[in-house]
Amino acid sequence: MQNLLHNLNPEQLAAVTLPSQSALILAGAGSGKTRVLTTRIAWLIQTGQVSPGGILAVTFTNKAAKEMLTRLSALLPINTRGMWIGTFHGLCNRLLRAHHRDAGLPQTFQILDSGDQLSFIKRLLKANNIDDEKFPPRTLMYFINSAKDQGLRAAQVEAHDDFNRKMVALYDLYDAQCQREGVVDFAELLLRTYELLSRNQPLREHYQARFRHILVDEFQDTNDLQYQWLKLMAGAGKQEPAAVFAVGDDDQSIYAFRGANVGNMSAFEREFQVRNLIKLEQNYRSHGHILDSANVLIANNSKRLGKNLRTDAGHGEPVRIMEASSDIQEANWIIDEAKNLIREGSLRSEIAILYRSNAQSRVIEHALFTAGIPYRVYGGQRFFERAEIKHAIAYLQLMDNPHNDSAFLRVVNFPARGIGARSMEQLQDAARQHGISLYAAVPHVGGKAGSSLANFVRLIESARFETQNLPLPEMVQVVLDLSTLLTHYQTEKEGADRIENLEQLINAATLFVSEEGFSREAPALTGPASAAALLPAADSVTVIDADAALPAVMSPLSAFLSHASLEAGDNQAQAGQDALQLMTVHSAKGLEFDAVFITGLEEGLFPHENSMQEASGVEEERRLMYVAITRARQRLYLSFSQTRMLHGQTRYNMRSRFLDELPDESLKWLSPKIQPSWFGNKKSAWDEAPAAEANRLAQGMSKAQDSHGWRIGQNVLHAKFGEGVIVNIEGSGSSARAHINFGQFGMKLLDLSIAKLDKI
DNA sequence: GGGTGTCCGGGATTG
DNA sequence: CCGGACACCC
Fold it and tell me: Does the record bear Secreted in its keywords (predicted)?
């Protein structure tokens, strides 16, 4: 016990040892949040306040869940397999498998990832003769997902115009089709679990009695449905609700665009009668100048719960800022600085280059490639998303649930077996006519089409038959052979990588089986009969629990298939090598590095132009900047550029407002700092940057100046709109008009002979 | 069915 | 400018 709690600072200690009531922990960046969470669990168990089975710990990412498990097993000598620690989706999957009948799902229901969901919707629109110009699949998908994220079924969504009424109708059709095929999307996992627990009182009370301590990581990222889910699970408002230990940071809320609602933090305080609010403000990550920059920047936001990070580390190096003349020059500067750091002994993997949007990585990658510096780009395609893997998975899905039409369509003619569009049309007609799945409709198709289709069905049947008693990895091997996927890629020119990936899939199955405990002599639960044994009798109030171990509630194949959907796996690009780390600011959340470059700090890019209409948008961008800054331990570099190629056009942006919100005493400008206009110094960097001029000329803009005396790229000051940049000039002489980017005020078209403009 | 050409649109992302 | 979606051709 002494051991468990020593080394905690007073705030952390207070949080870990809070009484069994709901509490909100405001955990600043780098304040030891995961440590507090895991130590809290260990302390609760060690002091006998709860058994491991009474703990429910929820995270958003698999990575966070794994991290928690690892650190917990280092703290406590217990088997963590029996504990309910996982993502919202993973935990819901487990509950739905165990109680599938009550939830109205087949035991082998399958999970659509977002790609599957999109093709599912396209198919739905086509089958119902909907014009996908008027109702774009992506829009419908967003509509459905946001409704589900708010806990709403189609019948509950309010629609006030024809378009929305149609969307609601399509949402309803979508759900019905999912139900027929035995598939669920990600949001459905949560909504279905929520509905299951809402209407099934014995089940609800069983889990409420079981989970006396619920811990939630990254609470600021919860959406409305997740919050309702937690309320239900905890029995909030009841006599003896569970103690919910919510850890979050409102300043790091950067996912409003996908439904996260920071308001859940104050709702939580209110609705869970939170008496204990603890702020973790001691930062163990960043040097002083970096932390001061973050603090001063975020103070510009209005809606905050209020928090100020402090550090015992000294000031450290100042934050370095560079204005480049072009995006190419910016990239080269970054590389020079990174080389210096490496020369001084930094590991490449301890240097991160961050950007607001993926498109910005190109120029940087090009420069790194030319310089021969190894780098790794985050966020690429992941293992289970690769086409060949999805094909193999589709065969396995059909064996486990033949009514999954998505899987059927993916592989019915891949590798090619002479089942073309015409045959499929007949099959789809038959399926629609009888209201059954494609697989089930095969016997209704006659002729040549019918016999090729019947051959395909026989292929799936025999794969299932031949593998029914095989361990999972061997099952995968057999499927790869029988489906002729392997031979198909052997004859393909560039199939070598794909074959390697397919072999990796067998490894993945082997690994999965050993990690999840399927390799031991688990009771064979492949048939529906044994699963039924787990279910409560209809009139019984005894609930058989969804034990935490997977083998108790699903077959190895079903489990592996949900694993493939719920954990898409790493993107394996250049993994393992000591390489510079390139990623968006969003994907940097939760990570930390010795040195961090934040690039493209320009109005329109960061803050992004789509966010600048509303104050709340800019505040989220500012939080994003806050996240970016607080990734750095020792060194922080900020850069922006006067010109930038975007969408095939040269853009001229003003420097980001965020740069002007940072504290001067923590900064070191490596390029001359041009004061904002209201400070007096009006000299433009353009006048002192011959390189920029040369660059511009090289880009074919030879006509730098015209008779009207203005040129593209000129910084100007306008009485009403303030500081701006001339982006384009049309016409000439006295009739010339200029497109001027005024940042917050947007793009204006002004007549140069009329508008009162000063050069700055 | 796969390969090539044309058109369009382009913010971030986990499960 | 670049990638995805789709039409068209062999």
Answer: no
Alpha-carbon distance of A91 to A96, in angstroms, equals 9
What is residue A61's predicted lDDT score, i.e. its pLDDT?
94
**Proportion of chain A in helix, strand, coil states, percent, rounded to 5:** 50, 15, 35
The pTM of this model reads 0.86
Express each pLDDT in A438-451 by its tens digit.
Answer: 999 999 988 888 88
A614 vs A605 pLDDT, higher one: A605
A747-751 and A737-741: which strand pairing? Answer: antiparallel
The protein residues having a beta carbon less than 7 Å from any atom of strand B are: A 60-63, 87-90, 113-114, 145, 186-187, 255, 257-258, 356-359, 379, 413, 416, 418-420, 566-568, 583-584, 586-587, 608, 610-611, 617, 620-621, 647-648
Contact partners, residue A331, CB within 8 Å, separation at least 6: A363, A364, A366, A367, A368
Amino acid of residue A478: V
The residue with greater pLDDT, A599 or A501, is A599
Please report the pLDDT score of residue A534 as a whole number: 37
**Burial (0-12, 13-18, 19+ Cβ within 10 Å), A735:** exposed
Q: A705 phi and psi, to 5 degrees?
A: -140, 150
pLDDT digits (tens, 9 = 90+) for A277-312: 999 999 999 999 999 999 999 999 998 998 999 999
Range from A168-182, A395-409, A642-656, A697-711 carrying the lowest mean pLDDT? A697-711
Asked if A629 and A293 count as a contact pair (C-beta separation under 8 A), the reply is yes
Dihedral over Cα of A94, A96, A101, A105: its sign: negative
Active site residue A329: no
The answer, yes or no, to whether residue A2 has pLDDT greater than 70, is no
Query: Is A98 part of any known ligand binding site?
Result: no
Query: A682 is written with which tokens?
Result: 């009006």
Amino acid A683: pLDDT: 35
Nucleotide of closest approach to A186 (CA, C1'): B15
**Quick check: is A217 catalytic?**
yes
Query: Which nucleotide comes closest to A93 if you measure CA to C1'?
Result: B15
Treating both helix axes as pointing N-terminal to C-terminal, what angle do A137-149 and A224-234 enclose, rounded to 10 degrees?
A: 30
